Amino acid sequence: MGTATVIAARDGDQRALDALVAEYLPLIYNIVGRALQGHADVDDVVQETMLRIVDGLPRLREPDSFRSWAVAIAMHQVRDRHRRQTQAPLVGDWADPTDTADPGADFADLAITRLRLSGQRQEVAEATRWLDHDDRELLSLWWLEAAGQLERDEVVDALRITRQHAAVRIQRMKAQLDAARAVVRALAARPRCPELQAIVTSWDGRPSALWRKRLARHTRECQRCDRAWMDMVAAERLLAGISLVPVPFVFSAAAAKTGAIATTAISAKGLKGLLLGWFGAAKPALAGVAATVAIAGAAGAVYVTTQGEQRPAVVSQPGGSPTAQPSASGAPSSAPPSSPAPSRTSSAPVALPPAVKSPKKGVSTNGKVTFNQAAVKDMKAGWYYNWSPSPSFGATSGVEFVPMVWGTANVDADVAKAKANGKVLLGFNEPDLKEQSNMSPEQVLDLWPKLQASGLRLGSPAVAYGGDTAGGWLDRFMSGAKARGYRVDFIALHWYGGDFGPDAPNQLKRYLQNVYNRYKLPIWLTEYALMRFDNGTVYPSTDQQVSFVKSSTAMLEGLSFVERYAWFILYSSKAGDTGLYSNGTTPTGVGAAYRAAGG
């Protein structure tokens, strides 16, 4: 969400305020929920935070710092709640167990269930239960930084400490988190270590910092349990790109009549009343199921529908602003969207983002084509890149630009531009080909610290082929990065299929699965299409390419380890190739199929 929306909301534009609250509610909920570990006070603290944000917005002097300001308010409310509860012990040592939330509200369980976490990601979520209050407070911010939802400067501002002090605290917290992960593993082992079993006979079964220390000490000293420390993937790698835990809000009857916040413009006073209605109705309504909360699996969006509704309204979508989601049939809604009431003080209406089919779906685009901005939006893409560190056009609401450092020329300048223009950085382009960036793994490794120093989420160099080959270019690079202690947050790949038959999607899937099995990192497929490189470039028929688009995008949306994919290419003047557009107005047959994909 851009600064323009913040300014409009601050100046009284009710629709902008509506969108702003819908955008930031999930972020605030995740910060508070993780800091308080699902305690019964989470709803109250989130409500207090959102009300303070709405109340204070007219006095905000620096709109471009809105997110940092909102996060700082959330942390203030968490600390304020902690001060009020100082007489009551924290999680693991409650004087009165009935004071805690229902076990179903435990934030670790919510994260595991709603984000479908498994393996080491699930272990990390379970380990958070074992941290003390201060570490959980810090974790609530660092988790979102690792996931790409916050910047380090915003974490520092919220903690009100120096950047260096924050780095030290985060390092210590991560050490405690790893100890907790070892405890989780040791307790889950079957058969359980007899010595460990003897230790826990006096344990009440509730995780706490004190018991973490006791059990972690045993895992370090026990020859049987010390294996729990082996093969731990760094937590920041596991959290990279992970979605926000969806907001489990339910509507009261009055709120349901008023309408979802993402679609209804109301006054600030009415907005506060609606917030109060949501939170006030949450606990009793959970028993009666007054509403249904559904998670859109691939898109990660949260839909809230009241009983009897068929058309969901998007409340939040990680990485993007709230958008209208079309019904499965494509039929128009029976009720037109409401518009803000006229006001003498209202600013010009804020354009809401285009409907994005899926945040996974992207496009690669030639930056020299002037109509790209409209074409990217028309493709309903969630992101785009152009093989450069700078965007092709001005900000397009709801569409993320992802910068790239293409080759060895001007690496320092390109990294600086990338840092200014994005939150994720793509590494070098096809270094395994002489006609592309043409670099050895060792050359890339020597330059990698410059990319890593950007602080951006970092993708591997995108190899043209052989990403799953032992001893291949990518394997040599990844081995070198591990040996040198370098960070690689996800694997970028290219794939071009030479088999134009119906098995092509399965061939692509097998390749992606093999690469994932080798490195256990998320995958970005940043170029793909059907074409053969023999005696020139050979393309399939339009029908074959369209069929492949439909089946491959459905497959990619269903693979949990594939975070992003981008078709090659947005525009081409050559008829019959892979271009989604051949002119500035109408998509090709392939383009029409890709535009419909991701739903």
UniProtKB/TrEMBL annotation:
Residues 375-594 form the Asl1-like glycosyl hydrolase catalytic domain. GO terms for molecular function: DNA-binding transcription factor activity. InterPro entries: ASL1 (IPR053183), Asl1_glyco_hydro_catalytic (IPR024655), GH (IPR017853), RNA_pol_sigma-70_dom (IPR014284), RNA_pol_sigma70_r2 (IPR007627), RNA_pol_sigma_r2 (IPR013325). Residues 20-86 form the RNA polymerase sigma-70 region domain. Transmembrane segments: none annotated. Residues 318-333 have a biased composition (Low complexity). It comes from the Bacteria. Residues 312-364 are annotated as: Disordered. GO terms for biological process: DNA-templated transcription initiation; fungal-type cell wall polysaccharide metabolic process. This is Sigma-70 family RNA polymerase sigma factor. It comes from Dactylosporangium aurantiacum.
